[in-house]
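input
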Amino acid sequence: MKIIDISQPLSRTTQEWPKDTPFEYELPWSIEKASTVNVGKITTSTHIGTHIDAPYHFDNNGKKVHELDLDLYVGKARVIKVSGKKEIGIEDIKGIDISGVKRLLIRTNSWKDRSKFPNSITSLKPELASFLSEKGIQLIGVDTPSVDQLDSKDLQAHHHLHRHGIYILEGIVLDDVEPGDYELIALPLRIEGADGSPVRAVLKTI
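output
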């Protein structure tokens, strides 16, 4: 068994959404400053780096992080590669075997340099949600900051996925992950009332 870390590291260089809260870690208590222990303080967005979206992020009536079913984020997942596209639609997926898959992770390779927030990404077409739902998909993961285009105001992919019972994992790192089946662990923090949460996402070979 091999564990593959598909999380972005969190540091001051982690790219936040424009105008969102950047990640910062500091030591208010420090052994170097005569404290008996080091105690850190984190300031960040709930949508920094590798993270999950709770439906409450885009729907006031949607579930919040502490209400999510943890089973969604642990279990067998299939990685597929669909690159070179502005948007991924049904026609891009229907030739790929996703039978019996509950968690689908898409490697788009469209975020080339994670030291910079991207100018453009591969997004999901809203109508893809119904197709994925018919196939039994309950969690979709992407290697981009969003399932929608970066300038989207209506977040149609988010809303369509939600209507079809599909939850969202964003910002995973699949650069060196070969397509195939893995065991996914991507648990959100138990933050009551939250709209999203950073996760430590890993794949285990099976």
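quick obs: The chain has three helices and 13 strands.
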